[in-house]
TrEMBL record:
InterPro entries: Porin_dom_sf, Porin_O/P. Keywords: Signal. It holds the Pfam family Porin_O_P. This is Porin. It comes from the Bacteria. Residues 1-24 form the signal peptide.
C-alpha cells in the first residue's frame, strides 16, 4: 500500500515537472515569494531560503561484453541492463533541516531505497545526518555515480565492500568543513538482519578526513585519509571482485565474479580497513589515486590465519575541449563537467590502473591488475555517453576454463536531471 501511494505521488510530481517546463520565474504569494526552476529537474523554493524541494534523478542504461576470466567458461558473454534508475526528492524545511529520499528502480528489477535521510545544519559548520545512506569512505565513492570518470568505481573497493555499504540499516553521520581547506566526517551504521548467534548487530564505524589547500574547479590539490571498522563475531572472510565489470553479476548464467579469498564459515571475528587518497587538477587535466588495506582477524584457536587485502589505483583524465572537472570541499569530492559548447559538448579521455591482492599466510596469494581506457561525451549537462575498454589479468585466480585474463567493453547512456 505504501509503495502504491508513493508511486501515485511520483507520477503527480513528474506531471507537475513536465507541465512546469512552460513556466519559469517568480510567483508571488501571501508569504515569501517562490522561485521555480525547471533546468535540471524541477525545483521550487522560497526567496528567503527557508523552504524548498527538488525533483531529480538519473537513468543509466549499460551494455557490457566480456570474455576470459570475466565468464565462467571463458567464452564471450554480454549483458544489457539498467545500472541505476533513481528518482531523487530532496529539499529544505525551516532553513536548517534538509532531507533526501531516493528510490532506485533499477536494482535487480525491483525498487529499493538508495537513500532516506534527514540532515540538521543548524550547528554550522557541522552537519548531522540520520537515516539510510552510504558511509563516507574514499574519494571515488564520495563522488556521485553520475560524475565518476570510469563507468564503474575502482576494484579496490571490492576488497572491503562493507566500508561503503548501508546494508539496509540506519546510521548517523557528523560532518563539516573547517576554514577553506578541511573536511571531515565520522559515522556509525547499524546493519539490518545481520546479527550474530547472540543477536548482536554488525555495526560499522567510519572516519574520513580531507585536506585540500586548493579546492575549486580546475585548481585542486586534495589529500585524504580513511578508517573503518565493523563489529562482528562470526563471518566467512570472503573477498571477491567483479574486476570493474558489473555485467559479470548481472549475467547469472555465465558471468564470473572470482574469489580472491574463499569463504570459510565461522573462522574470522575482526574486520577493519584504512585508506589514503590524493588528487590534483589543473585546468582540464586531473590525476587521482587511492590506496586501501583491509585486515581480517582469525578467531583465537581457528585453523585459519589472519587475512590481508591491499589495493591501489591511479587515474589520469583530460578534457579535450578544455573544461575542468568540478570539485566540492563539502564532501571532499569531484563533481560534474559542464560543457562550454552546448552543441558539441565536452569530450574527456582517461586511463585507470587498478592493482588488488589478497593474502593469508602460505594458503592464499592472489592478485589482479586491470587496465581501463575510456572516453566520455558530455553532450550537455543532462546527457553523458561513456565507452570503456578493460583488460584484466590475475595470478592464482582462474575460471573453470583455467583463464586468468580477460577483456571487456562497457557502454553507458546516462540521463541526469
Amino acid at each position: 500500500m505504501i509503495r502504491k501511494h508513493f508511486a501515485g505521488f511520483v507520477a503527480s510530481a513528474l506531471a507537475l515537472a513536465v507541465s512546469a517546463q512552460a513556466f519559469a520565474g517568480t510567483v508571488t504569494t501571501d508569504g515569501a515569494d517562490i522561485v521555480i526552476k525547471t533546468k535540471g529537474g524541477f525545483e521550487a523554493s522560497t526567496t528567503d531560503k527557508q523552504f524548498g524541494f527538488k525533483i531529480g534523478g538519473r537513468l543509466q542504461a549499460d551494455f557490457d561484453q566480456f570474455d576470459g576470466i570475466y565468464t565462467r567458461n571463458g567464452k564471450t558473454a554480454n549483458e544489457a541492463y539498467f545500472r541505476r534508475a533513481i528518482l531523487e526528492i530532496s529539499g529544505v524545511a525551516y532553513t536548517d533541516w534538509k532531507y533526501a529520499f531516493n528510490v532506485d528502480f533499477g536494482e535487480s528489477g525491483s525498487s529499493k531505497w538508495d537513500e532516506a535521510s534527514i540532515t540538521y545544519t543548524g550547528f554550522k559548520p557541522v552537519n548531522v545526518k540520520i537515516g539510510r545512506f552510504d558511509p563516507d569512505f574514499g574519494l571515488e565513492k564520495a563522488t556521485s555515480s553520475k560524475w565518476i570518470t570510469a563507468i564503474e568505481r575502482s576494484a579496490v573497493y571490492d576488497l572491503a565492500d562493507w566500508v561503503n555499504d548501508k546494508q539496509d540499516g540506519m546510521g548517523v553521520q557528523v560532518s563539516g568543513v573547517a576554514g577553506d581547506m578541511f573536511y571531515g566526517s565520522a559515522g556509525f551504521n547499524r546493519a539490518k538482519g545481520n546479527e550474530d548467534v547472540n543477536g548482536k548487530n554488525n555495526n560499522t564505524y567510519n572516519l574520513r578526513g580531507v585536506f585540500a589547500p586548493m579546492a575549486e574547479a580546475g585548481n585542486v590539490l586534495h589529500f585524504g585519509v580513511n578508517y573503518a571498522k565493523r563489529n562482528t563475531e562470526d563471518f566467512d572472510g570472503r573477498i571477491r571482485s567483479r574486476l570493474n565489470v558489473r555485467g559479470t553479476t548481472e549475467d547469472g548464467v555465465n558471468g564470473n565474479r572470482p574469489d580472491f579469498a574463499p569463504a570459510v564459515a565461522g573462522q574470522f571475528d575482526g574486520d577493519s580497513a584504512w585508506g589514503l587518497e590524493a588528487a590534483f587538477a589543473a585546468g582540464p587535466f586531473s590525476i587521482q589515486s587511492e590506496y586501501l588495506r583491509r585486515d581480517i582477524d582469525a578467531k583465537s584457536g581457528s585453523a585459519r590465519d589472519d587475512r590481508e587485502a591491499t589495493g591501489y589505483n591511479v587515474q589520469l583524465a583530460y578534457t579535450l575541449t578544455g573544461e575542468a572537472r568540478g570539485y566540492k570541499l563539502d564532501g571532499g569530492k569531484f563533481d560534474s563537467i559542464k560543457p562550454n559548447d552546448k552543441q558539441f559538448g565536452a569530450w574527456e579521455v582517461f586511463y585507470r590502473y587498478d592493482n588488488i591482492k589478497a593474502e593469508e599466510s602460505s594458503v592464499i596469494d592472489t592478485k589482479a591488475k586491470i587496465h581501463t581506457v575510456g572516453v566520455n561525451w558530455y553532450a550537455n549537462e543532462a546527457i553523458k555517453v561513456s565507452a570503456n575498454y578493460l583488460k584484466a589479468s590475475a595470478d592464482n585466480v582462474v575460471n573453470t576454463a583455467n583463464d586468468d585474463d580477460g577483456d571487456a567493453v562497457s557502454l553507458r547512456l546516462q540521463y541526469a536531471f
